[in-house]
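Project standup — Tuesday

K.O.: blocked on the structure for the chain from last sprint. Re-posting the sequence here as requested.
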Amino acid sequence: MKKRKNKWYYDSTAYHEVVLSGSVTLARNLADFDFPAKMSEEDAAEVVSRVRGITTELAAREGREYYSCRVDKLSNTEKDCLIESHTITPSLKRRKDPSGLIISEDESISIMVNEDDHIHIQAIKAGYNLREAYKTANRIDDYIDSVMPYCFSEKYGYLTSKLQDAGTGMHASYMLSLPGITMGGKVDALQEEISRFDVSLKGIFGEGSKSAGFIFQLINRKTLGFTENEILENLEQVTAQIVDIEKKLRKGLFKNVGTEITDRIYRSYGVLKYAKNLPQKDAMVLLAQLKLGSDCGVIKIKGGGSALHKLMIEMQPGNLQTIYKKSMGSVQRDEYRAKYLNENLPELIEPDDESEA
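H.V.: unblocked you, prediction finished:
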């Protein structure tokens, strides 16, 4: 697989202190084949070949570089790297049958082949840009449909492997940074409240995963019986309410236990800068605490929260091994994670330096 340089999460101009990214995924199946769960290995390989065959034309239409590969032929490290940047799903990694991927150079657009469905078109944008993600995914969807007819019912909409995904076949999500809600012990109450609006909070990598670094994924639960615009509007409205709650709870944290939180933030910087061994879970918490301090103006660092979000992704196992070009066990990864963070943690901005930042 070709080496990719710039990533979607490098876009610091779109940074939002709570909303880290927005993504839209469209689930589609081809009319000429059985669904993935019932396909033969030969048919699975044919689906991958057909979809990968549009890569050159897609690149020309979109005016950007695209690459394609057989996901089942990638190493576990390469797959982990793509999962960590939210480019593919853990489910696609687990597939044993032929599976594929078309990906833009910055990894903001991915077309997963033979996950739960034949095609999952995903567009992801940094910050509060869900509508732009939808426009991109929809445009690519229209092109693929013009060259490969989908399974579609006038009554039920797009037919998918999972009943709950039928209809629009669309899942929209926001990746949210919620330290105020988490540290305030409000996650369960929030989950119960938002369930009334057919959305749910999931872990950092979706279904079955856990939150890490106070990061959660907010995603719609139903696709049947709703239009794409209704799904987007509902998610945007719920997200806006969560953002307001999160900001209020952050202010409350610093009002009630400001000295303790501030001390924790500065200690986080010191540990990240000088520790020689950092397990992933510990590093995520330290970076999240530092990001909270940066977002709230308690500590000033070059690049702000956007630079810290980048580190949260790139210090994970797949990215770490890719950066250092070596396979590592967990103990060695903890050592190299510390080394990577020591060397790449943004510098503090002193008051006299602010005009230069």
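K.O.: great, moving the ticket to review. Strands lie at 19-28, 66-70, 100-104, 109-113, 119-126, 152-153, 157-158, 170-177, 199-202, 215-220. The two ends are 37 Å apart (CA to CA).
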